[in-house]
Amino acid sequence: MEPQKRIASVLHDEHMASVALLNRLESVLLDNGPNAPPAVGEGEMARLLADVSAAVQDEIGRHFTFEENELFPRLAEWGDADIGTLLKEEHETILPVGQQLAAMIGAARAEGFTMETWEPFRELGLELIERMIAHIQKEEMGLLPVLEDILDEDTDADLANRYALGA
């Protein structure tokens, strides 16, 4: 189901972009086994690493912060604090994994992967994928439908505008 509220639609679109990026990452991690570090170079691998790093450092943190500051309190006011609490706990688990992966990406972009750095990166990347996919599914099935029910048009427009401006 395609969300009707603007903010739900924006978050849904970001979820779908994240899933596409996670699928790209998973493909590389699975195609290159634990003993086969890929060359970083200038091609697709370099673009993938840049995209994952940007997503973790910019998009995921911004997305999580907005939900925690703007959406979860509204859920609590509406009487559904549990979903916000659960999702916030997941944010607190996912973000450090993503930040650690981004740090590893920084090193790999500078020095390439070695046998010693590839396997920890690969394991952490697979962990991030698993956590993010499960989290996105919860938000798609639990958070976004609730937003459709609780937000009036003015609040929805305000939230969508504030999110677009980086608030």
Tell me about the largest β-sheet.
none
Structural class: mainly alpha
Number of domains: 1
Give average pLDDT, whole number. Answer: 93
CATH architectural category: Up-down Bundle
CATH class category name: Mainly Alpha
Q: Which homologous superfamily in CATH is the superfamily? A: nmb1532 protein domain like
Strand content: under 5%
How far the N terminus sits from the C terminus, by CA atoms, comes to 27 Å
Query: How would the global form be characterised?
Result: elongated
Number of continuous helical runs:
5
Number of strands: 0
| Radius of gyration from the alpha-carbon trace, in angstroms | 17 Å
What does this structure look like?
The chain is mainly α and 167 residues long. It has one domain: nmb1532 protein domain like (Four Helix Bundle (Hemerythrin (Met), subunit A), Up-down Bundle). Helix content is 84%, strand content 0%. It is built from five helices and no strands. It has helices spanning 6-31, 44-78, 81-111, 115-150, 153-164. Helix 1 (6-31) runs antiparallel to helix 2 (44-78), helix 1 packs antiparallel against helix 4 (115-150) and helix 2 (44-78) runs antiparallel to helix 3 (81-111). The longest helix is centred in the C-terminal third of the chain and has 36 residues, at 115-150. It starts with 5 loop residues before the first helix and ends with a helix. The model has no long low-confidence stretch (mean pLDDT 93).
